[in-house]
Write a structure and sequence with these properties.
Layout lengths: L1 H5 L3 H26 L2 H4 L18 H47 L10 H8 L1 H33 L7 H13 L2 H22 L2 H10 L3 H52 L3 H12 L2 H28 L20 E7 L8 E7 L4 E6 L5 H8 L7 E6 L2 E3 L1 H7 L3 E5 L9 H8 L5 H10 L3 H5 L18 H15 L3 E5 L7 H14 L4 E5 L11 E5 L5 E4 L11 E5 L4 E5 L5
Parallel strand pairs: 3-8, 3-9, 6-7, 7-8
Antiparallel strand pairs: 1-2, 1-4, 4-5, 9-10, 11-12
Helix pairs in contact: 2-4, 2-6, 4-6, 4-12, 5-8, 6-11, 6-12, 7-10, 8-10, 8-12, 10-12, 15-18, 16-18
């Protein structure tokens, strides 16, 4: 509970304080209204206190008016508190989502290595709902606690002998708050785990469906999904059963406790009838809260594992460099990476003498799983290498400064798909100030103009609807159009043209070179044809030895040339090429 309260911002703490004050005022006025019923229940009789409010000489009409005014004030205060509470809960949920999403956006890639997309999706969606429900339950417990304290205070004021029963009431409350607590915590933790598994079964469903059907595993998937759903059903049912059991215990103990209080007050010290009526009315106000109090405790316990998962992602280390540039590097400066080591020495990957020149294309090739994507992550400044020695122009720079230099970049990988609704939204996400003419121009560059010309919606063509769904290759073209609009200092395309045929791939990449004359272009591809338009090739061998070669196309006058082995698709250094 303390950890949850510590997540509140200053504004939320101020609103919570106002919420407490309003709840306290509502509880006070409500208790006062309950006591004001006594002159109406027993006209002519008065309580042995409060002569101003409980003047026996007043008419019934006047007493009824005073009671109605108190009830109206109680209703207004409780309504205002409920509105403030609703605004506070909504804002708290918004804050949780924004903060964890911002932390994920800023997190180091290495800190997300063990996280699944299903778990992250759960953290951003349903998991936050559980925490918000727990926060709402905390509000309800606050109301119940304030109301109980004020009502009991009035009851002790009406009948001081009831103070003898205070230890009994405290003991009953402690007993009921602990009942079923351990089982509830276990059920709640398993519920969060099973919900994450459900997200995992549900993600990327259209593609998974094709895979499942081709293997004729529909029944297996139904059984697996059904098993998780059954565990969720059991967990949810058990939570409600624990709420009902706890509520029953609370109500039974409350009935015994209140009856015992009356007996003690009457037998030991005696109590007059008006006071007894007032005590009954005050304690009766607490009965409706017994139903919600136990359920609020259960919801608070259910929120605990969800809050732990949220906190785990909030503790991710940010990936932001605070190093200021000593001199602004222009887009014409070449980057010369003299030495770079990616991971520890046992399986490390070394890159030496890699020169990245704006306007030139560098092809990275090598077998699958050999480290190409890891290399691209480092070149993009998103992962820190073990060793790094480089120059920008003639100036020596460290990796932090390199990261700042390439921050104005564009990184497109094979598995990324646009998440926006339409073509226009996708492109404006990159360049909000772009005109329709500019958008159509970049679509022409990537060969997507004819496809949209056949659509009646044009730039507003939906990306994922059944009537206008774009293919995988068309979606990749759209992402490459984003790169052109971005005009980055460094563009990295990690299998970003894999869904295109070989000829289209060359055409699109050539268009990117032409439209991005000030951009360092790095392409990861398995196809040998890309080497024809590459200015240099970086090949990662099976022994993790990297080779940087010059022009990879047909034999060219170069100090160090290369040719393409069509059987393997790799660049082969030809040190004896003519110069």
């Amino acid at each position: 509970m303390r950890s949850l309260v510590r997540t509140l911002t200053g504004v939320e703490l101020a609103e919570t304080a106002a919420y407490v004050v309003l709840s306290l005022g509502a509880a006070f006025v409500g208790s006062l209204a309950a006591v004001l019923l006594v002159p109406l229940v027993q006209p002519g009789h008065t309580l042995p206190f409060g002569s101003v409010l409980f003047d026996a000489g007043r008419s019934v009409e006047m007493q009824a008016a005073i009671f109605a005014a108190a009830m109206a004030a109680f209703a207004l205060l409780r309504w205002q508190a409920a509105r403030l509470g609703a605004r506070l809960v909504g804002r708290y949920g918004l804050s949780l989502r924004r903060r964890v999403h911002a932390r994920l956006i800023d997190a180091r890639l290495t800190s997300l290595a063990d996280s699944t997309s299903a778990e992250i999706a759960n953290v951003l969606t349903h998991n936050v709902e559980l925490i918000v429900q727990g926060f709402s339950a905390l509000q309800q417990l606050l109301i119940a606690g304030v109301t109980a304290a004020v009502s009991l205070g009035f009851a002790f004021w009406v009948s001081p002998p009831l103070m003898l029963a205070a230890p009994l009431l405290a003991g009953l409350g402690l007993l009921t708050s602990r009942a079923y607590g351990r089982e509830q915590s276990l059920v709640s933790r398993q519920y969060v785990v099973d919900m994450t598994r459900l997200f995992w079964h549900s993600e990327d469903f259209p593609r998974r469906l094709r895979h499942v059907r081709s293997f004729e595993k529909e029944d297996v998937e139904k059984a697996s999904y059904g098993a998780i759903s059954a565990r969720l059903c059991h967990g949810y049912r058990r939570q409600l059963e624990l709420v009902a059991s706890g509520r029953l215990m609370l109500e039974l103990l409350a009935a015994v406790g209140i009856a015992a209080v009356f007996v003690l007050a009457h037998r030991w010290h005696g109590i007059d009838q008006p006071s007894l009526i007032a005590v009954c009315l005050l304690l009766g106000r607490l009965l409706p809260y017994l139903v919600s109090t136990r359920q609020s405790f259960q919801q608070l316990r259910s929120a605990a594992p969800a809050f732990e998962l949220w906190q785990r992602y909030m503790h991710l280390d940010p990936d932001r460099s605070s190093v200021a540039l000593s001199r602004k590097t222009t887009s014409n400066d070449a980057l010369h990476i003299e030495r770079m080591r990616l991971i520890p020495q046992a399986t490390g990957l070394d890159v030496d003498d890699l020169v990245l020149v704006p306007g030139e294309l560098t092809l990275i090739s090598g077998d699958s799983g050999i480290g190409k994507s890891s290399l691209v992550d480092v070149l993009a400044g998103m992962m820190t290498p073990e060793a790094f020695v480089a120059r920008a122009g003639e100036r020596i720079i460290g990796f932090d400064e390199y990261r700042e230099l390439v921050r104005h970049g564009a990184y497109v990988s094979q598995s990324v798909r646009p998440w926006q609704h339409s073509v226009r939204e996708c492109l404006l996400w990159t360049a909000p100030e772009a005109t329709d003419e500019m958008l159509r121009g970049v679509l022409t560059d990537v060969g997507l103009d004819k496809r949209l010309a056949s659509s009646q919606h044009g730039l507003d063509t939906a990306l994922h609807s059944s009537s206008s769904r774009l293919s995988g290759g068309e979606l990749q073209r759209l992402l490459l159009a984003q790169v052109i609009l971005r005009q980055p200092f460094l563009a990295l395309l990690d299998e970003a043209t894999s869904a295109l045929d070989a000829a289209s791939e060359i055409v699109v990449l050539s268009a990117l070179k032409r439209r991005l004359p000030q951009t360092i272009l790095i392409v990861v591809s398995h196809r040998p044809g890309v080497a024809v338009i590459a200015d240099q090739c970086l090949n990662i061998g099976n022994n993790l030895v990297t080779t940087v070669a010059g022009k990879c196309g047909p034999a060219t006058s170069f100090k160090e040339s290369a040719v393409v082995d069509l059987s393997t698709g790799k660049c082969v250094v030809n040190s004896s090429a003519p110069t």
